[in-house]
Amino acid sequence: MKKKERHARAQEIIDNYSIGEEFTQKHLEEFEQFSGVSFDWIKRVPNKPNQAPARHLHCSCPEWKIRGGSFSWQKAVQRLTENQYRKNVTNKVMRESLQFYQKDWLSRQEKVCSFCGSTEHPQADHKDISFLEIQKSFTEQVGEPEAYYDEELGWKLKNEQSWIKYHNDIVTYQVLCRSCNASKGAR
Ligand SMILES: [Zn+2]
After folding, report:
1. Domain spans of the chain?
2. How far apart are CA 117 and CA 174, in angstroms?
């Protein structure tokens, strides 16, 4: 998707919402692909007085250190090059392809955060080797992972099965709560 198309798509998404409404998970994920960061939430807020239809948004985004403040989605879309966008999409589908296995692992664990002991929002966290490290060695040993767009299924990964197997053979997990996992940063 070119910058212009991403910009148009972002507008289209925002126009689904009235003031005060929070984005659905699906739209949140699209915005993550456009901007290259993770959001806890995004919601539409009123424009400033005398402002053209700017489609003003607030978000919570740990990477930008914004906790419920405004951000410029136009800038976020603009800043990202075509290559970075493709990379984001590829990262996203690579992570998504693991979700089933992570849920399965989590279902067999005691759901207590290894860092703070919280039992809220438990997640499977990459413990000894990070996602990015596994992704890097996969790229070196198997080849560049590549996403393609399927009209029915959305973004999918070529070599999905070999990626899943490669990852799952190496990975070790620990249980972390969402907050501790987020403050570890992108890995
Ligand atoms: Zn925790």
Report:
1. 3-79, 82-183
2. 12
Alpha carbon of 177 to ligand 1 centroid (Å): 4
pLDDT in tens, 138-161: 999 999 898 888 888 878 899 999
Q: Which amino acid is residue 28, in one-letter code?
A: L
State how far the alpha carbon of 17 is from the alpha carbons of 43, 46, 54, 69, 121, in Å: 8, 11, 13, 18, 27
- Token output for 40: 């806890």
Q: 119 alpha carbon to ligand 1 midpoint, in Å?
A: 8
120 Cα: distance to centroid of ligand 1 (angstroms): 8
Flag whether the pTM goes above 0.90: no
